[in-house]
Give the backbone structure.
Amino acid sequence: MDTARAQYRVHQCSKCPGDTGYYCVSCPCDLCPRCKEGHLNDLKTIDHDVVKHNEKYWGNVEVLCTRSAYQGKRQQHKETIHTIKSETLFYRSVLRTGIIADINTCHKKFSLFQLEMNAKAKRLKERLDNIRCDVDFKHRCRKQRKDVHGYIASIQIYLDRYEKSAIRPLQFLSSIKTTHVTPKHRTLHNSQMSMTESLNKVAVLESLIKIKCTERGDRSVGEDHFLKPLPKPELHHSLTVRGADGCYHISCFTTDQVFVSDKEGNLILTNTKEDIFCHLKDICSDDSIKCNGLHTVNNENELIYIDGNYNIKKQPRNQGKPHIFITTTDSIWEPQCVYWSPSTGDLLVAQYKRESAKNEKVQVVRYNQTGQEKQAIQHKPDLYSKPSYITENNNGDIIVSDYGLSGAVVVTERGGRHRFSYTGHPSGSGLRPRGICTDALSHIIVCDGRTYTVQMINKDGQFLSHILVRPAGILQPYSLNYDVNTHRLWVGSEYNNKICVYRYLARQKTISEHLFDKRTHASEDEMPKPSRAIDPNSTHVILKPLHDIKYTETSQKDKECLQKVMTSDHRLHESRIVTGECQATVDAKGLESQTLHRSIRISGVENCNHISFVTLDQMWVNDRRNLILWNTDGGILHRLIDVYCGSNQGSHTVNSEGELIYIDRNYNINKLSNNRQIVSVLVKRKNFKWLPRCVYWSSRTGDTLVGMFSVHKNKGMYSKITRFNKNGHWTQTIRRDSSNQDIYSEPSYITENNNRDVIMSDWSGAVVVTDHQGRHRFSYTGHPPGSGLKACGVCTDALSQILVCDRRTDTVHILNRDGCFLSLLTTQIDGVFKPCSLCYDYSTHRLLVGLESNKVCEYEYITEPKDLSDGRPFNTDRNGSSNSTCSDVSMCVDNS
């Protein structure tokens, strides 16, 4: 082999043209050093297992043994490795950027100080030089000494002459006369050299130095500097907690393990692979608090929970035998929920005491790490009524989810002073708070059992957004937990034993990552780009020709003369209406009201739970016990006994032959002939786990759509829609969305639109719409989105509009086929208007509204075009064209 010509292949990074050095076991993909850092910094992949690329190819026995030992140590220190990779290294890069900026700033400031210091030093040197030149003390002392010595010598001469005057007086007097000596009075200079005030030591130092250093502690990075909310939460993964009956509270144990408690007193430790590691059964199962926040995990990964005797126990990290941490000596004060504070290491316990029906007290007790009471904060009953969950914010605020009469998130500061109470959005609209937590940005996140949403407010109680609105898979969110390591939100369901993990925060890129991205994109732009293939599972709309629709002259005429909406008193709050290319916001003040054609009192039933239209003067109506055929002229024509008549359920329908299709008491789907003589089984119940709940016969396909539900012990309730053909054979099942998450909770009523969309009225708070192939299109949860909906009867009209009864507000909502809210149909009959069921008559274009009483009201809210003179009933095209469409569905519906 010619080695000189041999070609060697260098592994290339999966994300950029760089050379690979690492391998992600979780993805899997090859990564260069730079992309490896970004891969671990991204919250989407922060917990992925990234190893050196050569570890991927360990093969022989000796190497396998080494690898086994290596993997064992790696698993032992998994959390430490994760912290270093995902947090420490990321913080290092962020801190390094800040340090470099500070160094550059210091250099600039030091250079300015240095120039000033040099100038001052020069001036000081000149001063000292002048002093040394002007004051030569040594020279002056010598001169003074010479003068003193001369003066002493002259005095001595004079003295000598004076003493000799006694011997020769005449000679002395003559000498005085000729040489007069005048005494010289000299002052002695005994000055000492000293530093003046302007030249003292302190003044010199202060004049030279103006740089002040302030001690600020260790350098750190706040979470708000590198975290930002995502436009829309992303589902990271989901898991089913085996053996749990609902997920009522969650406590994160590790990044992939959580403790989950249910309503039956089970406390289970599971992981993302749905393995069970621990199952405790001595957790408190009192009906009054079993759905509260009964457990928490401390910094040492020790489980702390409330047991059946209201003692607070602690279980070691290795799942050893639990021991009593805090004994409840006062049987009157009952602990309701617990939370361990990672910032202080204290344990917060909300306690409740009921002395009488009118005397209730609540207190929050703080215990230290040894279980000693540090603080007791008592509140009056009007602040709390029944605390169910408790947590602590980053600023020390104590946050309580009060599920009692107050229905609020109550926030107090550390000392117990009340700060605010959040009661829903808009303020005062109502809240049923359940699970609660806070995140790294000090946001408060709470589950609302009224609207089945997860809401986020800031630390001061201002509403920010709905993170989740009736999320698929969970449908009824109940419990929450925020993982501080991965910044992910764990959400548990009351409806079933499902937990979904979401990413709603993302990390902001550092400067170095931005520069690297620019270089990477620049290199990618230089590379030839492959042609794109359209992904059939993508969100892009693929338009196909409609071969099954035939356009006749009459249908074109009908299309041009679209029906007018005689809009109501409809209280159209604010909605987006698009006509052609014009889009506007419409206020419905002053619009004409709909027309009440007639009101029919149905004898033989207590209320009108469901209506199936037969002819202009005949309809099937049922309450909780009876299903009767009512004639507007003659009263009851027929009564069925062997029928499943549930409240808020569309348990019957009528086909084009006038035959009644209904669910019987054995959950078979039967067909009653139009002469009401023969009953035949259309679909026989075979699977005893799935039970039919509502039916609808499709006039477009001749199929029967059946809403079904299934109740499993320790698994919750699940629902689906099943399609049967004319012969009663199964053809389709609609159950999950593109993420394989359940989209139905409690099927109530079912119908089909002109464009063959399948529409389910789900009692748990939504109108769920899928296309005819079963792909989830949208879920309508009220107006505005997330405001709450108790969906009952549902139908569609000739304009492909969707009409649904809302028992929460006792109104009828009108939507377009894309889920955009159009208006509210509000009418009061005898002071009470509580709509339960709907039925649209395509022959007269009138709406039948069944009330909670035994009345059916017939409304005319759309009219036929006046230019149709042939007397035919108006029909829209099969595609369901309408003059009211919504270009921005996200403004009106939840597409999660």
Summary: Residues 10-76 form one domain. The first strand starts at residue 22 and ends at 24.
